[in-house]
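Rotation project, supervised by the postdoc (A.L.). Task for the rotation student: set up a whole-complex structure prediction and record inputs and outputs verbatim in this book. Inputs entered:
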Amino acid sequence: MEVLELARWQFGITTVYHFLMVPLTIGLSLLVAGMQTAWVRTGDERYYKMTKFWGKLLLINFAMGVVTGIVQEFQFGMAWSAYSRFVGDVFGAPLAMEGIVAFFVESTFLGLWIFGWDKLPKKVHLACAWAFSLATMASAYFILAANSWMQHPVGIVMDEGRPRLTSIWAVLTNNTVLAAFPHTIAGAFAVAAAFLVGIAAWHLHRKSEEERVWRGSLKLGTWVGVVAFAALSISGDLQGKLMFEQQPMKMAAAEALCHTEQPASFSVFAVGDVRRPDCENVKSITVPALLSFLAHNDFDTEVKGIEELVPLYQERYGEFYPVDERLGELSGQPIDYVPSLPVTYWGFRFMIGFGAVSAGLGVFMLWLTRKNRTPTGWWFPALGLAGIATPFLANSFGWIFTEMGRQPFVVVPNPSGVDGVWMFTAQAVSNSTAGEVLTSLIALTAVYSVLAVVEFYLIRKYVRGGIPGVLPQKSDDGALAFAY
Amino acid sequence: METLWFVLIAVLWLGYLFLEGFDFGVGMLLPVLGRSNAERRVMINTIGPVWDGNEVWLIVAIGATFAAFPGWYAALLSAAYLPLTLFLVALIGRGVAFDYRGKVDNPRWRKAWDVTIVAGSWVATLCVGLLISTTVLGLPIDANGDRVGSVFAAFRLDTIIGALAFAGYALVHGAVFTALKTEGEIRERARRVALMAAPVALLPLVALLAIVAGLWAGLVVVVLVAAMWRLAADRDGQSFALMGLAIAASVVILFGSLYPYVLPSTLNDAWSLTIANTASSPYTLQVMTWVAAFGTPAVLVYQGWTYWVFRKRIGVHHIPAAH
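Outputs recorded:
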């Protein structure tokens, strides 16, 4: 394999993996801060136990999110140095801000929260929980601003062949990030909600100690899940409209829409190979005019198909890659403007599908446990635990869709922005050897695999341990309340 | 403005080397100073609340380099690809190890994480030293800022001395920190180990400084000797402060001699990267200056507060029985 493919696989694997931990961290840390607030305000021990239990699981997951995040920051320079040089004037700023504004707060106050139970006044300790939870959200904002700039470059002029930042404000208020941020945060809450519901259902089924804790957690999870799904739908719809304006090819690829339609129908499910050029022969269940609505809020908008978009892209951004030895096999070759259709088409559907299943399960769970009932069948905890996977899958497929859907670009041209600001993924990669990238790919994948097993094992252990497993033990005088 | 950011990045590296320097050292010395599980737990708990905050200095140093000098960031990180891969793996292992070590009450489990902490701390600190000495001493890079030649180009005699320099410093610094933060037998042991190891462990740092700046290295030697003298006199706090002064002087010497370069080319001086040919635009630097002007003092205040909250020495009797 060439350096480009290896570096792309590495970025994909490490990022999808990192983003398994991140949404759980964001969603759960805010919910735990909420639980602790309820305890401090009411003095009800139930909330204290909830804080301790979910806080413990949060910390196990947090550690993994932190260490896998370090890789991300180095990776741009290591494997994508041409990209880093090209966009450095713009892209580095939100990354550095993320460090100064978010990571310092997050790591410092997390340390205070873990070790400060007996050292800090109750309210100060609670403030630490809010500080690190809000910092995780701030961190998401900055990194999404950076990513949104790649999808829709704003706030720049072209200067000596590189984009030069002219307005950080424009980057931070890019309409792409204003839609992506609520979508991502809602996705994070959906993950945390399913986590609460699944584990609490299992404990209710087992009739574990502290029924009130599990009942409360389940109720909290189901409601958060339902609200998150509503927020996901609204923000997702907004994103769809932006995509229609900003990245028409991604829109067409999401539907594997070969030819322009007016009104355009939305494909629910396809039988057959959606790959080009076979896409014309695919049998697909469609909802008439729905795609027009998703794109532009009316049932009559024309949505351009791939075959019509390709010549437009060729005209605007060139037909051939430049002749440059650094492009390897692609040097001087025609540019393929169509993303991988099976990935985008199914990625989009799996995102929506798993998201909907997750929300449906939440509502079903809420109904099952109405008036403090607990179904006795084994299927009840099984459904809850299986449900935990669904929002994780929806998140992953959503990101895979949006990142694969912008190929062959790494920086997508902004149709109404400054001309000349775009970059092909093939031009972005470092001048590394395949051996180097293969080494890091293997090393990181191996370490990540081992850690996945370890994290799963630890979470399972603490879930099984229930409340008694997380409460501090009575200890001798002078001993610390918590120690590693 | 470029000079200001060069200085700020040096300060971020200083913060990183000073702070994570001691938590690396604690990890490196875990089996040497911690003879029993309880003693090892004492050591881990001296850094438990703070090591993650210390590591963010690295994240911000690298992030600030990306924002202020993208050309430097791109060239250094891609050229030092393999050492950085090793570095990342070490940081990952070590990072989860602190948190996961105590989560299962089983000697084999603890043993595995102890090995991870020790190996991770050694490898990570060697890699940091290699990275810093590489950027100071230079690499074979071409006009485009790309490395020419072997993937092992960053491994040379002088950069390996640089790697050992920071490992040796972290070792002694970690022992002094342990002496400062613990009580009882472990504290005595830490003091003895620091004093015994210092003449050998600190030698590579002095050698690196001599390579880079000649006689200026003498300045650091004086501070290091003073640090060991105060430690011998049972004044852990003063010794720790002097160790901080030593790394500050070292960073000043290394980055001072580098300026205005950021990554010299060992092939052709015209290809060397400097603050001028790698810097971001004045507007970007201005934005970042505002962020740093408000952010950094706040960081110093709340990180300082954390150290104050956890200021008490820890001994074996503070460690809760099982967990």
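Student's summary: Strands of chain A lie at 156-159, 162-165, 266-271, 283-287, 409-411, 423-424.
Supervisor addendum: Residues 3-247+339-465 of chain A form one domain.
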